[in-house]
Amino acid sequence: MNESSEFAGELFEALARRRGITAGCVSKDELREFWEQISDISFDARLQTFFDMVDKDADGRITEEEVKEIISLSACANRLSQIQERVEEYAALIMEELDPDNVGYIELYSLEMLLLQDPTQSTNLVTDSGIQSQLLSQKLVPTKEHNPIRRWYRRLAYFMEDNWKRIWVISLWILICLGLFTWKFIQYKHRAVFDVMGYCVSIAKGGAETLKFNMALILLPVCRNTITWLRSKTKLGVIVPFDDNINFHKVIAFGIIVGVGLHAGSHLTCDFPRLLHSTDDEYNPMKPFFGNKRPDDYWWFVKGTEGWTGVVMVALMLVAYTLAQPWFRRNRLNLPKTLKRLTGFNAFWYSHHLFVIVYILFIIHGYFLYLSKNWDKKTTWMYLAVPILLYACERLIRAFRSGYKTVRILKVAVYPGNVLALHMSTPQGFKYTSGQYIYVNCSAISPFQW
């Protein structure tokens, strides 16, 4: 009843209604009776209190409207906004279950039967919680389907029902990547460089286009405030699995690896060697891009801005990706002490923040291109502008919040099961809402980690 005077009022009215009390106050003896009923944790007492709260006219029957009211009230008291939005649906389900004959109301024994009946729908009531738990577990065991086709279809149906949001988002992402790759592949197939470098250059440029898209996209799943706002303030949460943001972040990271492999692999193993071994006649159309003198060896490509930025980026990405793997991040490998210090969560955390250098190099790499000289053809910054700006705003908001209101640690306790409990003061004006979370910083360990 904390911070919910409305719920407390409804409870008072229910207790008073049962005893025929019409006044807005109670005597000392009546207060004792109220307290005895509220503090009685037995199943029957709690069920009766709940029933009395729903049964507003005290006729021993609950209508669908009364069910709606109590669900809404309970959801409001516990700040469960999702339940409040589906009150009618839940009330209809309850009435369907407890009023199979459609008489328009349910009685106390119906609630009791629903909660206490055994898996065979027997009328023998089982009150022992251990036995009841076992019976409910047995009731949840699915019946085995002997037909393999039906069994496979049912599993597929369950999978689709549970994962349809993930499936369509991943499918859309894959289609966009394929579309960008194909568009760039065909574009370079009709350019002069194709005559010398062949399909190698088309693959390299197709991979680069998906890389630009994924480098922009990978920032969005880690914009926590934006994700929270989209989930709670828009209807997109109905079709987009925002709670899977970190998993999607990992999927995009894999897409970046594929893009780097296609881009760098094709350049280093295919089109650069073809350029180095081209004849003078074949090289003539390449002079506007690579200079009047044909490059002599690989070093020419590496020492250029395009080359060294690419090499450094790939090296930093490999470090960050490797240390992010569970066996390194959670120190699962039996490594020598010297190497073990280079792994663990701290290594993962700080190596991941190398992305600042990576993005700077990525923009430089995307500007100094061999085969594109016009600024409007250098699209890397166009992909990255909005996501980087959004992420920068996110970090500014976090920094502002971290110093806006301070709290005092009132108590620290370690409970069985390796549970650490922190009791802290509540900032003035703060009201808890269901689903909220906090980030805790221990500056003695790290001033940057939350």
From TrEMBL:
PROSITE patterns: EF_HAND_1 (PS00018), EF_HAND_2 (PS50222). The keyword DNA-binding does not apply. It comes from Prunus avium (Cherry). It is a multi-pass membrane protein. CDD domains: EFh. GO terms for molecular function: calcium ion binding; NAD(P)H oxidase H2O2-forming activity; peroxidase activity. Pfam families: FAD_binding_8, Ferric_reduct, NADPH_Ox. It is found in: Membrane. The chain crosses the membrane at residues 167-186, 307-328, 348-368, 380-397. This is Respiratory burst oxidase homolog protein B-like. The keyword Transmembrane helix applies. The gene is LOC110748649.
